[in-house]
Structures are given as C-alpha cells and as structure tokens.
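hey can u run this one w/ zinc ion bound, need the structure tokens asap thx
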Amino acid sequence: MLKIVIVPGAAPSTPTARDELAERLSLAPRSLPEDLRRSNRGLILRALHHGGPASRADLAKLIGVTAATASSVIKDLDDLGLVEELGRTSGSVGKPATMIGIAPDGRQIVAISLSKPDEFVGALVDLSGTIVERRTYPRENRTGTDALELVRSIRDELVGAADRPILGVGIASPGIVDPEGTVIRASRLGWQGLPLAHELGLGEADVHVANDANASALAELTFGTSNATNFVLVRVDQGVGLGLVLKGELLTGAASAAGEIGHVVVQPDGDECTCGKRGCLETKISGPLLQQAQKGADDDVVRLAGAHLGAALASILSALDVADVVLSGPSEVATDTFRDAVRDAVADRTLPELSERLVVRPSSVDDDIVLGAAALVLDRELGIR
Ligand SMILES: [Zn+2]
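ok here u go:
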C-alpha cells in the first residue's frame, strides 16, 4: 500500500554526498554470478541505509545495474518486508518517482553485549539501528557454563519480547572470536574454544559472534556520523583492542586475532601483567586505570597512558596508511588530555604525510556495544555496513 508522506528530495542530496556514497558502494566485491543477486540486494540496502530514501532509477544508477534489475531486486526486498514505498517526490524535474526506503520495522535484531565487566546488556534493535528495548543483566562474576547459561536466557527473553520477525542474533564478546562464532579465548568469562554461535543457534535465526572491538568498529562503520571507511578504532575497557577498517571492510587477520595489541610489551621492565609478561600495553592503559586517574585529577597518568597508546599505534597507522583514530570506551577516553597525548605520541613517531592528516576522535556511536552486535547482524544477514 502506498503511504502518503513527505519525502525529502532524492537522496543523497549533494554532489559530494553522492560521490561519497558511490565510492562506498564501489568497495563491495561482486564477482561470483551466483552471489550477484544477493550482492545487489546488499548494495541497494546499503545505499538506502547510508543515503536515505531513493527512487528505483536512482538506486539503479547508484549501484550500476539496469532499471529492470534494480526493480526486480527491490521487488524481492519488498516481498521480504525489508523495504517499503514511501510516497512520491514532487517539485523536481521530470516525472514524480516513487521513493523506496528501508522498512525499519521489517525485522528486529537480538543484540547482546558481553563487553562490560559486571553486566551483560541485551537489546532489540530495528533495521534502522534504533534500540527498541534495552535490558541489563548483572553478571555476578559468572564464568564458564554459568556465563553461557546467562547468555542463553538473555537470548530467550529477547526473542520472546520481539514483536517482529527476528533477522538474527548478534553477540559482541571479549576475547578472540573466529568467523564461525567460536570464542577461541575470553579469559574474563573463562571461555576457551567455546562454539558460542553453535551453542546458541536457533531454528530460524542465525547467531553471529564477534570480538567487541570489532563489533564497535562495525557500529562506527554502519551507524557512525563520520561516513569514514578507513579508520582504526581503539576499544579501551578492561584491556585494549583494535578494530581495523580498511576500504569499508573489517580486517580480522589470519587467525581472527587482528587488533589484539593489549599484550604488546611497551616497557620491558614494567609491571607484571596477567599474561605473565612485563610492561604490556594493558598495564599502562585500561578503562579502570583512566577512571581512577580522572577521579584523582591525575593528568600525568592520563597523559602517560595516551603516550603509550600513541607509541603502540604509530607503526600500525603507518603500515596501513590510516590517519583516523576512533576512541571507544568509558567517557574518560574522550577527554582532551587523553586524545592530545595519543595524537602527540603518534605525530612524534610518523612522517608528516601521515601526521598532518591525523585525527584522533571519540566514536560517534554511543558506547553501547549492543549497536555493534546489531551492526554485525546487518552486515552478515543483509550486507549493510
Ligand atoms: Zn600481558
């Protein structure tokens, strides 16, 4: 049914925004013929997610297919209830065109974050990334099977609370997670080789699991206001982890451990670390350490933590030619003192070609990794990122 609504002009509205969106869409690989239809669906959803409502003709042009192909893919998406017709444009040149947009209520995502030390967070998220419902669950130091059972009951509760079909279940976990959703190691939760996605699999909805820094990076890529497609996200919480995004793709590495820099030694004669080595980056910087320093107004500790992080980042940024550093974690990572210390330490160690472009900024997505868990499902199920 056609709803009568006022739709702002065909998106994206400015030539620059249009170029940016076209570039973003061109990043997606689409070579295998059998994947073409799926890939076209993903591209159209991605165009609508980042660019807003658009006409069939605009979408065809944006993703580089014929009008007939675009119409057929849009019909598929409409049949699935993932997009909707929003009304007709008026006032522009030519015939009024029917605008298509993502149907936010077409599905709900069950998103669970295991990142915080003392509580798990669960949410129902719609297709536009709006949190419909958010619940917290005290962890009470559960580890091993007890922690797994808590996650299972959160999943059941949220699946029961959903009032739309479920697109999938996304989980952001600390530690190293492989592409199949097995937690290789998450010390805090006492998990080792735990096939979490398999354990929590539901009949009709797939379960996707990612490391929390990677989930944060996906949230920034999918919901961030910066439109950045090349950045390093630094997640500071109990430890330090990175999410590396290059050309719109998350790098996970050969053994799914890309970005695990917390136990890189920055001071060989430093304090002993939980891993047994001395002077790991995590002994110099963590959420609790920054919070404590902030409480005691101890700027020196904050500056030193930022300097250690910057020193560890300098070679990574140089190697990848990335000059955009996104800080995610407790509010303390967003202070000017900390950010300046990180920026100065990177600038001191890199060539002007990098340091003159260097930006160190807080994440534009709320520090709630449930949105990262939701972004993971949008990516894996619909190709939106
Ligand atoms: Zn260590």
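The domain at 15-102 is CATH 1.10.10.10 (Arc Repressor Mutant, subunit A). anyway lmk if its weird
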